[in-house]
Amino acid sequence: VDRLVWSVNDLVSPERSDALAAVVESIGASALRNVTHFAPFWLAGPLSIQLAEQRFVYDPPGAVRSGFDHLAAKGLLTIDSTSTSATETFRPLLETCVSARADASQRLWADVAIAPVLETVERLTASIGPDHPVAHAHRSLPAPESPWLRLFRGLTTLRYIRQHDHVEAWRAAGLDASGIKRLSTVSEGGSASEVDDLIGRGLVDESGSITDDGARLRVSIEEETNRRNEDSWRSIDQSEQERFLRLVTAMPGEGRSAG
User: Fold this and answer.
1) Tens digit of pLDDT for each residue in 149-159?
2) For the segment 172-229, what is each residue's pLDDT rounded down to a tens digit?
3) What are phi and psi of 195, to 5 degrees?
4) What residues have CB less than 8 Å from 28, skipping those under 6 apart?
5) Max intra-chain CA distance, the chain
6) Distances from the Cα of 53 to the Cαs of 47, 56, 66, 180, 241, in angstroms?
7) Per-residue confidence at 256, pLDDT binned at 50, 70, 90?
C-alpha cells in the first residue's frame, strides 16, 4: 500500500507537471506539501488545524500552523482559532493539485483491472470511525469521479489508519513524536542529536547506538501497531486478504521507498 501511494505522489511534482510548476510559482515550493495533501479537504470545506497537525504528527511544533500562515499571507486561506478555509482565489490551485493526482494515478494504473482492488479497499475503509480522525475525515470526503483517484484516496486512507495505530503504539510506550523519530533513526544505524532522554531510559547508549532494550522496544511498538491495525482488516476474511495482497503486489509503481 505504501509503495502504491508513494508511486503516485512521486509523479505529482512540479518537475513532472507544468500545471504544478505554476502552482509552486504562486505559493512557493515550501508550501506544496500542505497544498497537495490538504487540497481535497479544503475543496470540501473547512479544515481543522488539529486534524492537519494530526496528519503531520511528526512535524516540529508549530510547523503546520506556520505553513498555513504563509498561505493566509498570500490571500489563499482564512484562519480562525480552530480551522482554515480556502479563499476563492485558492480554489483553482487546489483543483490543479487534485487533477494532477488523478492524472498520475490513471497514468500509473491505466492498464490494471483495478475494480477488485477498489472494491476491497472501499470495504476496508467503509467502517472506519472517528477514533481514527484523519482516516475518518479522509474517507468521508466526496468520492472523486475518477476510479483511479478513488483507489489512490482509498489506499491513502489505509495508510492513515496505520499511521494512527502506530502513533498510539509509540505513545503507549511512553514516547513522543520526536522520541520515536530519533529512536527509529538510531535503530537504522543513523545518528540522532539530543538523545539524553533516550539514554536516560536505557534505549540508547552513551555512544549514540541503540541498546538491546531500545531494539526490543522498537520491535514491541511495531508488534503493537500490527495488533491495533488488525481491527481494520476484520471486514474481509483471510482468503480475501491474501487475494488483495496478491493484487496490490502485482500493481505497477516504484515509490521512493519501495525498496
Assistant:
1) 999 999 999 99
2) 999 999 999 999 999 999 988 889 999 999 999 999 999 999 999 999 999 999 999 9
3) -110, 20
4) 70
5) 55
6) 11, 5, 11, 17, 31
7) low
- Residue 74: name the closest of 35, 122, 129 by CA: 35
In whole angstroms, give the CA distance from residue 139 to residue 135. Answer: 6
C-alpha cell at 244: 488483495
Look-up of cell digits 470495504: 123
Taking alpha carbons only, the member of 57, 52, 45, 91 closest to residue 68 is: 52
DSSP 129-154: -TTSHHHHHHHTSPPPS-HHHHHHHH
Here the cell at position 32 is 506544496
Residue with cell 508488534: 223
CA distance 68 to 82: 12
Q: Distance between CA 213 and CA 73 in Å, rounded? A: 47
The pLDDT of residue 257: 46
For the purposes of burial, counting CB atoms within 10 Å of the CB of 42, is it exposed (0-12), middle (13-18) or buried (19 or more)?
buried
Q: Copy the grid coordinates of residue 46.
A: 473547512
Residue 136 has which C-alpha cell? 475518518
Give every strand in the sheet of 47-48, ordered side by side: 47-48, 83-86, 77-79
Half-sphere exposure of 93 (CA within 13 A, CB side): 27
